[in-house]
Amino acid sequence: MKVSIVIRCYNEEEHIGRLLSGIAQQEHVDREIIVVDSGSTDATLSIVSAFPASIVHITPDRFSFGRSLNMGCAASTGEVIVLASAHVYPLYRDWLTQLLAPFADDRVACIYGRQCGDERTRYSEHQVFARWFPEHSDPDQQHTFCNNANAAIRRAVWESTPYDETLTGLEDIDWVRRVMKKGWKLTYCAGAIVAHIHDETSAMIRNRYRREAIAMKSIYPDQRFRWYDFLRFWIANVFSDAYHACHDGVLSSSLVDIIRFRLMQFWGTWRGYARHGTVTQRLKETFYYPKGLTRQPPEDAGVDDGRAIDYSRLTNPGDEHVEP
């Protein structure tokens, strides 16, 4: 099937070259790339111009996450639309193949893949990824958690159900909620893995979670996140992160950042819910509950089976793309 890859971006010169290089090395070749840019002023567009990609422009005053997705999807021609954040990059050459495989089931409308961090990622963010994106796939996920930083949807479903352009975030969860009500299935594919890089200040972390909480309230208006929830989730997650950091031998270097990250996460969430209003229990468990105090054996990352992408030749974000 023909695949369209839609990438939303704004001033992503540090990351987008690596993503586009990783796409160029994918096994699945029948694809087009559409970059939706919301007014970049750095070298983003010149980097994109070195790749076979089309650019769709949206002015900052018209931007919303849902609107930029709708514009990218409207410009696409593929039967399937892959959605990727500009600051992710695939780890393996079969990322697209893995992500698209569940579409063999005609009832699947959306697939989202696994995400992890890299050496730049904060320790607590690693724990968030481990909680949100587990190692085992779920071919028929019953709750509506999804993430458009690494996902694929059927174009025909999008045409009848476009993204909500008024939300401040979580347009992916809202979209999945609406299409599942129509009988479509959601699949989580752990084999389709990308690294997702957040390089944020404390204020940016707080604002990200505040924006998402505002959207969650809009999607699920009957729900609350109270002062008590802020305290208990902050404390529980700091304790969980510290436990894992201790076992990983990095507690002394990570503890201050763990406390700060989790404070910003749940302070932002509480502020976003300031007008009172909680998430469904399954979503609350996914979003807010800590990873837990069980330890899993580390994955065998030392075996080179030929799937891993070598980014070492991409010496800086503006380099020519790496040929497959």
Walk me through this protein's architecture.
By secondary structure, the protein is an alpha/beta fold. The chain has two domains: about 5-195, Alpha-Beta Complex (Spore Coat Polysaccharide Biosynthesis Protein SpsA, Chain A); about 205-290, no CATH class. The chain has eleven helices and nine strands. Strands 1, 2, 3, 4, 5, 6, 7, 8 and 9 form a nine-stranded mixed β-sheet that branches. Helix 2 (about 45-50) links the parallel strand 2 (about 30-35) and strand 3. The longest helix has 22 residues, at about 250-270. The radius of gyration is 19 Å and the shape is globular. The relative contact order is 0.16.
Question: Nutshell version of this structure?
Answer:
The chain is α/β, with parallel strands linked by helices. It has helices spanning about 15-25, 45-50, 65-75, 95-100, 125-130, 155-160, 170-180, 200-220, 225-245, 250-270, 280-290; strands at about 5-10, 30-35, 55, 80-85, 90, 110-115, 140, 150-155, 185-195.
